[in-house]
Sequence to fold (512 residues):
Amino acid sequence: MAFHTLRLVLGDQLNPRHSWYQRVDPQVLYVLMEVRTEATYVRQHLKKLAVFFAAMRRFAAALTAQGHPVRYYRITDPDNGQSFEANLRTVLEAEGIRRFEYQAPDEYRLDRALAEFAGSLAIETACVDTEHFLTQRHDLARLMGSKKQWLLETFYRHERTRLGILLEPDGTPVGGRWNYDADNRNPPPPRSAALPPPPDFGNDYREVLSDIAAAGLPHFGRADGQDYPLDRPQALQALRDFVAHGLPHFGTYQDSMRTDAPWLYHSLLSFALNVKLLHPREVVAAALAAWQAAPERIGLAQLEGFVRQIIGWREYIRGMYWAHMPRYATTNHLGADRPLPGWYWTGDTKMSCLRRAIADSLHNAYAHHIQRLMVTGNFAALIGADPEEVNAWYLGIYADAIEWVQLPNTHGMSQYADGGKLATKPYVASGAYIDRMSDYCAGCHYRVKQKTGAGACPLNSLYWHFLHRNAATLGGNFRLAQPYSTWRRMGPDQQAAYLATAEAYLAELETL
Ligand code: FAD
Ligand code: SF4
Fold:
């Protein structure tokens, strides 16, 4: 059977409900591929490579079982040209195909590369929607127009209203408030609190791991940690599990951290969402249905906190990416240029908070939002780490890391390298914040209550060093007025003690 159309499916386009698959056409060939160019453009976590390949293989097998013709390139296939372009040209020519179609990539880099590739072909081509997101790429930019600050809250309320989520008939928010963020900043739950069981779908990664080893793909991290949903039934299982066990406590503890609980009540749905096994609409619908069925078990603050992440943050971040790429990736507003300490790749540090957050990340290819933002991200910002290196670390280490969502979160929210396009102030904090929101400090080599001198928590002096060295850039930020006023009131001796302690720590970053 000759094929007239080739449809390319990227590794993060595993949406089984896409309209492409609603009809089997024996003349349409689907092509999926594991290629070196994608596996090596940044150094990646072994588990990230494994879950992407494993999920792609499952997806290809499901398409084949439905009767769709599929050509799948494994990373070890001898005829694999190891790039999209090489494999596509081979198949197009070998099959005499007359039409090439692809779904719009979410990464700027791939979007450009595939548009260029399509433009170079002498056959018909088409780029279609992924049918995944709730908003279009440029909706955020259109909504915000020339506003100085593109606030998440403005976008979120607009989206709640547009989608009719948690609204009274008169358009006001259910419960009288749009946002329960203030109720969602609690310290970790007590040890006696029941936590959801760790994710376990019974997946066997041995085959993909052996192929990754055979192909000699560079990687770091461990493969034995967290299990991930690799197909649609498992993704739906993950959604059901979260709604049953995590959602009832999601908001309350979403900002907290506990040494023995890497996941707490978080949903662990980001990988399934980002590779499009789940649609954000069905995720929100499942949470709303659970709340409606048992409002006494799932409070409004829990539900609203979760809905805000999905219809607010996730879509807002994507809108930011498309509004500002490609320049976004290149800015360095605070002129940060220090290399990341080597222990970001091993977790071998005496600082308990960083050791824990990095060890969790290396083990599971996962860390929850506050570990990413207020532990690893906070420390990188405090020392003035080069944003390019920081971005590469985040892009490589997390299974859910795809540039459209990783970059604005890291470069903007966490490192303030975008000069405040995304966050109204840098998310930096001293040890007191970590102590309030976690149980990390109790087991630390450093003393969180000690401000300066040997043995003091490094974050305490680095916090003031950060504000001091960036005063020319950040001193006029009204949201930092209070810390700058505290700094000025401190007096020269205390300021000097903070700066000397910070300088000493900066000089020995590798051994902290
Ligand atoms: P939950 O806490 O259960 O949240 C539910 C869902 O909401 C998530 O699955 C996610 O889809 C969405 N969500 C929540 N916060 C955000 C946000 N800030 N941006 C986008 N979506 C959000 N998320 C990624 O998906 N990929 C990344 O590469 C990524 N890199 C990050 C880097 C930094 C420095 C920071 C601070 C955050 C990053 N995030 C990233 C956002 C967030 O940390 C993860 O989405 C979340 O930790 C995933 O775990 P979860 O599914 O258990 O999320
Ligand atoms: Fe982290 Fe400081 Fe607490 Fe140690 S004392 S865990 S370095 S915040």
